[in-house]
Amino acid sequence: MVILLIIFLIIPLLWMTGFLVVTDFSVPLRDVRQFHHVLAIFPHADDEAITCGGFLHHVSRGGNAVTLAILTKGERGTPNATLDVSLKDIRTREAQAVTAILGISRLIQEDFGDGDLHDKKQELTTFIDMTIEQEKPDLLITYDLAGFYGHADHITCSEIITELKKTRFQEIPLWYVTLPKRMLARVEQPEDMATDLHVQEKRAFPTHKIFIGVSVFPKIKSWYTYKSQRASFTKGIMKFLPIWFFLSTVLFEYFAEAS
Question: Could you tell me the residue ranges of all domains in the chain?
Answer without folding.
Answer: 30-257
